[in-house]
Known about the structure:
It comes from Streptomyces liliifuscus. This protein is an alpha+beta fold.
Amino acid sequence: MTDLHWQKSTYSETASSCVYLAAPSAGTILLREGDEPETMLITGPLQLAALISTLHTPHRSPRA
Length: 64
């Protein structure tokens, strides 16, 4: 893979739990964790937006 420009997530607080993103081509986003930089998740912008939206949505407890 070519040299990538990795950007640290602004939500990462400590060095050991950092999430980095890179966009090697249009429509492709790579994610990696600071602790395991050799392991990458490949996704697209729409999928990443859906994940972030889900994580930001408050969870409701199931009704009994």
